[in-house]
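User: Fold both of these, please.

Assistant: Here is the first one.
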Amino acid sequence: MGERLYRATLLAGSTLTVMAGATITPALPAMEEAFAAVPAAAFWVKLALSLPAIFIALGGPLFGWLLDRWGRRPVLILTVSLYALAGSSGFILPSLAAILAGRALLGVAVSGTMTGFTTLIGDGFRGAELDRFMGLQGAATALGGVVFLLLGGLLADVGWRYPFLVYLLSLIVLPGVLSSVREPAKLPPPVPAKTRRTPLPLRRLLPLYLLAFAGMLAFYLIPTQVAFHLRELGVESNAPVGVAVALMTLASAAGSLVYRRLHRRLSSGGIFALNFALMGLGYLILGLAGGYYGALAGLIIAGGGMGLFLPNLNVRLVGLVPEKLRGRAFGGSTTSLYLGQFLAPILAAPLVERLDYAGLYLVTGGLMAIGALVGLLLSRKSGGETTPAD
C-alpha cells in the first residue's frame, strides 16, 4: 500500500504542472472582455496565462538547490500548499493586477512542485523502469490536463472566474506528500559552507536546456493563442476550445505511453527528431486549417509529438548527473522550460500582428522542421545512451 500511494502521489503531483497554465485557457476571451477598460487588456490577459512561467523559471535553480540541500519532502509540503492558495486566488481577487500577482505566486509554487516530483522520480527508478515511469508521468500529466481543461471549458461558460477553483484540486496531493514521500537513501547530508561543491556538468546539460526552451516555447503557442485562432475560424463557444486542447493533451498522453517502446529502438536524439517533426506537421496543419476539425487534426498530431518530449528530456537528464546534483539539474531544466513558456506570448505578438494566427502556426511549423533536423544530427552524433550516474 505504501509503495502504491507513493507512486500515485508522484503521478498526481506531476499533473499540477498542467493546471498551472492551461486550465484557464478557455476563459481568456471572456476575461479579456471583463477587463476591456484596462489599457492593453488583450496582452495582459494572455500574460496571465503565462506569467507563472517566468517565476517558475526564476525559481528553478533555487528550488533545485533547496531540494538537494534540505530534502525533497519539506520543499514539496511548502510548495503544494502555496499552489492551492495562489492558484485559486483569481476567483476572488478584484483587479487584473491582483490576479497577475496571484499568478506570480502560483509560478513560485509550481517551480518547487515540478522540480521536486521529477527529482523524486529520478531518485527512485533506473533503466527500463525509469523509461516506463517517466512515460507514465507524461501520460498522467496529459490525462490530468484533459480533466482540468474540460472542467475549465465547462466552468468558463458559467463565468470566467470559475476555472480558478480547479486549482484547489491540488490539495488532494498533500496527504500523499505528508504520508508517503521519502528522501532517497543516498541523499547526502548538508554540505559545510567551506566545502567545495561539485559543479554541474553544464557543457553536457546546455544542449538539453536549449531543447527544453525551444520545445516549450513552441508548445505554449497553443494554450496562449489557439482560443483566438479558433475564434477566427468561427468557433464562438468556450467549450469546443476546451475540448480541442483537451484532445491535444490526450494525444500527448498517448505519446508519453509509447515512449518506453520507442526508446528501445531510438536514441534520445532520434526521439527528439521525431518529437519536433510531429509538432511541426501539426502546426502546419493547424495554420492551413479552414475550420474547426482541420485545426483539431493539427492539434492532435502536435500533441502526440509533445508527449514524447518531456519523458525523453527527463530520462536524458537523469543519465547525465549523479543523485547529489539531480535537484539542481532538474532546476535548470525547469528554468529552461518555463522561460520558453513565458516568452511564447511575447514573441508571438508581433507575428500575429503581421501574419495573423494562421501565419504564426505556419512559421512555427517550419521552425519545428529545423528542430527535427537538429535532433537527427544529435542522434547520429551520440551513438549510445548514458546510464544514470550515481
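And the second sequence with its predicted structure:
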Amino acid sequence: MSIAMAKHILVRTKEEADALKTKLDHGENFDLLAKKYSLCASKKKGGDLGEIHKGQLVKPVEKIIFNQALKKIHGPVKSKFGFHLIKIYYRD
C-alpha cells in the first residue's frame, strides 16, 4: 500500500496560487504561508495533510503526491476545491 505525507496550500484562484508560488520560490516559509492564506482546515498545521493513502484525496492532488518529486513545490494544481500548491515530503 502506498503512503505519502505532504503539505498543501489551497486558494481560490490560479493568480493567488502563482503569487504564493513566487514567494515560495524566493524562500518564504511554506508553513507560514499556508497558515496565512490556505482555505483548508490543514492550515492550522502549516498545510500538513498527515499520512495520505491512495484514494483519500481528489484525483489531481493525489496524482501529484504519488508521482512527482519529493521536496519540491508542485502546482498550481486545479481541483474542484480551487488551486493547490503541494510539497511532498515522504512517500513509501
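The two ends are 8 Å apart (CA to CA).
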